[in-house]
Specification:
The complex is a heterodimer.
Chain A lengths: L2 H29 L14 H10 L6 H13 L5 E2 L4 E2 H35 L5 H15 L2 H15 L10 H4 L9 H7 L3 H38 L2 H8 L4 H30 L2 H6 L5 H11 L2 H29 L8
Antiparallel strand pairs in A: 1-2
Chain B lengths: L2 H28 L27 E6 L17 H8 L4 E3 L6 E3 L19 E4 L15 H14 L6 H5 L2 E6 L5 E5 L6 H4 L11 H5 L11 H5 L7 E7 L3 E6 L11 E6 L3 H10 L4 E2 L6 H4 L5 E4 L8 E5 L22 H10 L2 H8 L4 E2 L24 H11 L6 E8 L3 H16 L3 E8 L1 H8 L8 E5 L6 H8 L5 H5 L9 H13 L3 H17 L3 E7 L3 E4 L2 E2 L18 E2 L1
Parallel strand pairs in B: 1-9, 1-10, 14-15, 14-16
Antiparallel strand pairs in B: 2-3, 4-6, 5-6, 7-8, 8-9, 10-18, 11-18, 12-16, 12-17, 13-17, 19-20
Helix pairs in contact in B: 10-12, 11-13, 17-18
Classes of the chains: A mainly alpha, B alpha+beta.
Chain lengths: 337, 575
Amino acid sequence: MQIRDYVLRRLLVLPLLVVGTSIIVFSLTRIGGSPIGIYLSHEMDAQEVAQLEERFHLDDPLPVQYVYWATGVLRGDLGWSGVAAAPVTEVFPAKLTASMELAIASAIVAVVLGLALGTYAGARRNRLPDHITRIFAISGASMPLFWFAILLLIVFWVRLGWFPVGRSNAEIFFSIPHPTGMYTVDALLATDATALRDALWHLALPAICLGYGATAIIARMMRSSLVEELQEDYVDAARAKGLPERLVLKRHARRNALIPTVTVIGLTFGFLLQGAVVAEIIFQWPGLGRWMADAVLRGDQATIMAYVMFTSVLFLVVNLVVDVVYAYLDRRVVLGE
Amino acid sequence: MDTRGRLLALLAGLVLLAAACTGASEAGDADAPEGAAGGGDAATAGTGDEGEEAPAGTFVHAADDEPLSLDPAQVEPGEGGETMILQVYERLVEIDPNGPDLVPGLSTEVPSDDNGLISEDGLTYTFPIREGVTFHDGTELDAEAVKYSWDRVMEMDLPGSAASLLIDNVAETAVSDDGAFEVTLDEPSASFLRAVVPQMVASVVSPDAVESNGGITAGEPNEFMTTNMVGTGPYRLITWNRGENLQFEIYDDYWDEPANLDLRIEVVPDPDVRVLGLRAGEYDMIETDPSFIGDIEGAEGVNLYTEGLLVEPIHIGFNLNIPEDELPEEDTIPADFFHDPRIRRAFNHAYDYEAFLQGALGGFGDFNPHYIPQGIFGYDPEAPVYDQQDTAEAERLFREAGVWDEGFTISVITEEANLFEIAALVLKDSLEGLNPNFQVRVLAVAEAQFDEAHASDPVPYAMWVKNTDPFADPDAYMQSYIHPDGEWGQIHGFAQGYENPEQIASLIDDAATEIDEPTREELYSELQNLLYDDPMWLIAAQEGIANAHRDDVEGFVLNTLWPRPNVKFALFDKS
């Protein structure tokens, strides 16, 4: 099957998967009870509560409530976020771009370092650099994120005062326009060095914190698949042809070793985006993760639904992209079979 | 990648690193990243950009939550928005920083019988309006603006707001011929001046700002006023960077003593980060509670203020209006379980107050009499208090009520992972330790789930835990939590349980309209004695104040009658 046909087929199935997921998620969130609580205050009397229930159709049967929710989504209305005290659609873009910025920065840290370290270690199997990389990778993968985050805070914020928490210095942040919502990108577009410095300065600690764990996973994957590839016959053939070791590594072994690593990178990005809860809370990063954690603690179901649906769609799309990239890298892969 | 590519990548990385490090080193010069003033040079605080003029200094407070609304007509009592309103808006009279006394605010005098600003029938209050006061939008304050602000709250009457404070008391507002603001009440009230006028809901807003941005619609919030503030106070709101911070600057044309420092309120939900930030000097003050005192006590450069008590006692409600078929299946109590005062007294005797006070509150708090908190007018230190676990008396009362041998299972609902849950767990330990036939199920749920149950009428649980709303006058506590026809009196069916509900109601009603303070005090004392024998609540404790701030903060003053964190930042300075 051609890549184009495969992508079209997957895209056609995507809406069905999204609807199915939404029904499951909607039912699961309602198991925890009615979402009315987030809209209430103890100042309200029973009549005001009943009015709210009627207004949000929460006195209707569950399937009817779902239809209201789904038609609202189709109209671009994801409900009211009690936690943010604003419509979900109004808050979501700002939170998403903040999280995207952090996830991209972390992914850059993870991919650049992970591939470099993995390649370096794989090409020097069982030698000192390989052992050092392994220790680095194991510590990154096994260190609890909250502990590492607090450690970074204590050293670089409290003790040394080198890096701040939060996303920005508000004064500088508001001094430039924000067409994309990603502070770093907006600073580049505005060609404002002060804002760029402020953005990177705030981004550094959370990106390192989040990226370190992912670096370890990517480095390990890259190393082991490179070691495997270097034992293949075609590598021996390349060496026998007299190709320099650098080219054998770069043009042959590394390219093939990248295939399983790309899958991991794709999944890692998804996890970075949705798994940033701890980092966002500790580093005061105003992204989706922090918003979601607050929503879960306070039972803000409209926000939870929006977030879960977003991550579901994200994973579906990322999986599709990974499959396509996979096929591109390895023509032997037969799509759709 | 070839060698050139590698070099380019390396160069790009170095540029980015240099950019980040430059930022760091500049902040390092000021010894205060992100413009935080703590521990550094206050003159450079508030900006990370050397190219801009630095403000005189910024006070940085780390709050645990973000406001839901900044509109006095919308904000819920006890909610984070009240803190901001206190700093930016002003009221006709204010609560003095050093105590419960009232002092003039936007009114030049506090009405009293002596100055003739309260009419002889006690119904009309006159407030002479201060001249030369301007709103942050440049318009001038006058009595019409005050009338507009009060009428606006009553007309909007937003659900969850404190509008009922005005609606339940005020019959009419007017502007007198000589430009004073006049309020006529429905009936004489001993609590009006204290319980209504200095409250956040009675703040004065700029009519021009409201009218230019959507005006007034009954029952509908004004979106502009929800996120913007146009008051007369010492601070002007600059930005609300949602999820991050709120920035305020000194209002230069303020009519009274101006603020010393700009103000930034950081939204920092994680308590550990707040503590770290305070210790690092990044925050000048943090929101905290007694359970974090151990992390702060003795820290270099930090002052811990633990004097006084919050006026929001933590209480466990007895539901006398139990919807029998809606209780959790495991519960075995009958619907009239709490109608018997012996059972309510037995619960109060059985509770291990010491465990809660010393454990959960780390000793920072006090026991509480029924039902007026310490620090509020009418509190009687001589009134009897449930402050010691008395298992013998509890057992006697449970036996007398006929529930000792058979036992019971009862559920208590609470928000999870906070002091309320611990208060419920102490109840569980206390009762189950007293008699193995007693089973207490602690249902710790998410805040929204709790709020849903709490707002139901009737409440579908026999017991629940929360703290009271903070009030400035005893009448508000009595009306909300004790009066048989009051808010909780009706929901929980107190009339079915009080031995003499008419007497309780009459004492509360008399005290509400009694102008003579000693007589009023006596009435509340009598009520507290009565309520000891006929309790409708189990009060676990009155939580102590725990305020942590840097030791270079000057002019620190805290008043529990102000909204949390009970301070006015404009009074502070830094050395």
